[in-house]
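Q&A log
Question type: sequence-to-structure
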Amino acid sequence: MRAEYDFSTMKARKNPYASKLKKPVTMRLSEEVVLYFKNMALEAGVPYQSLIDLYLRDCVARHRRVKIAWPAKP
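Response status: OK
Response body:
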C-alpha cells in the first residue's frame, strides 16, 4: 500500500448491507426435520441452512401461523 494514503481523514459511514446480515442462532430440531431439509438442499444444490432460512422467510412473507390443537383432557 502506498504511504501517501491517509485514511484518518475519511468520514465513516454505515454499512449498507448490515441490515441484510443473518443472525446466528442455536435451534434444536428433530433428526427427521434436519434430514428432510438436507435431502431437499442436495436436490436444489444449496446449503440446508440456507434452505431452512428461505422456507422460514416464505412463512414470514405469507404471514403463516402454526395451528396448535392440544388434546382435551379426559
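Response note: The chain is about 40% helix and 0% strand.
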